[in-house]
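INTERNAL AUDIT FORM
Audit reference: QA-55
Scope: verify that the stored structure record matches its stored sequence.
Auditor: D.O.
Record contents follow.
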Amino acid sequence: MLSRSKTFLFIMLSFLAGVAFASFFGFSLFWILFLVAVLALFLFSFSDVKSAAFFIFLFFIFVFGVLWYQRSVPESLALEEFSGQKVELDAYISTDPESKDAKQQFVAMTDKKEKILVTISRYPEYSYGNKLHLEGELEEPENFEDFDYKTYLAKDDIYFLMKNPSITLENGNGGSVVLSKLFLVKKGFQENIKKVLPSPESDFINGILFGSKSEISKELYNNFINTGTAHIIALSGFNVTIIVMFVAWIFSYFFSSKRVVVVSAIVVITLFVLMTGASSSVVRAAIMGSVLLLAKYYGRAQHALNALIFAGVLMVLINPKVLVFDVSFQLSFLATLGLLYIYPYFLEKFKKIPDVLKLRDTLAATFSAQIAVLPILLLNFKQISIVSPLVNVLILPPIPVAMLLGFLTGLFAFVFLPLAKLAAFFLWFILFYQISVINFFGELPFAIINFN
């Protein structure tokens, strides 16, 4: 007889298996009948009626996963008949616009709730919620030579593009009033940091805090990739986990109750998520970080695994396409899995290493996460950074302090600029050191191995 936790785990895995199956094969009556036949043959090996009934139940959960994925795939799109034609339509900006070099990009939501990825010149700048009248050619995405761009956009329900349309700004605002205010706060923080920190340090800390990569130079970004440190500026599960653990560590000095520490840390991380705009990737990272925190304070391995799988199920229920087609989801999930299961092994192996500045913890966490995400990195990017473990060990220990000082710099600038400059003074030294390490190792000719 399975325990309740294992029963729940099998139910969740059956649902995820159904979503994964549908992601690859779609809803096919042939495949469903084939699986029914396999199940029927499999059940003949059981003399135990309860076991047979349980497997039948799991099969229905699997089919539910298939149908849940199929539900997320639109049968038809109102804009499809206008693909390749010049159109006029009204929409509002449903994402925080991103700027890079001379371009600006955002998602426009039509009155039919269909999304269009719009790319225009950087100026004039637009904001979340702006209502627009668009005139331009409607296109469907095309795949690149080694990148499935159509699937990448489809996971976010984006099936159309519009490049350099004529735009008329209309009165009123669409979208969420709360999100609109949050994006304004986020933008204010970023501008405050730019006031008191030079580039590239200001660009780097804005990437760490908000996942903003728009101002980071191409050369520096390539060095992030070459050193396996791009996760730092992606507001990944790793970043949020650092915040969660750092906040929990601070609260542990003030409260003896584990429950108070955990709840306080989760409240802080919730406020942080809201401040950064509550994008799907940040929410995902926050859930993963919170799961790791709960596992650290309460968890046995089985409970921690159930919590992690449950977090994944929640995300897949919200958007079934993330399971197979969202690399950042896969990386966050596997990195967290590595920190739960591989990290204790390395921590034991590195017990002779002095834990000055959390060196032992950082080394164990780095190796654990790197090993866990290695299959995804090889499958999707066809390369691996051989300097990544060393660079991560060198630059990760000061990250919590850098994030705290970065947050205080942006906050103080709202009320008293000299105080923000004082925080920025100490912050600059940390960021300069980290960027120097990344640039040095990123420019080494043997930094990465390509498998193309």
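Auditor finding: record pair retrieved intact. The chain has 18 helices and nine strands.
Action required: none
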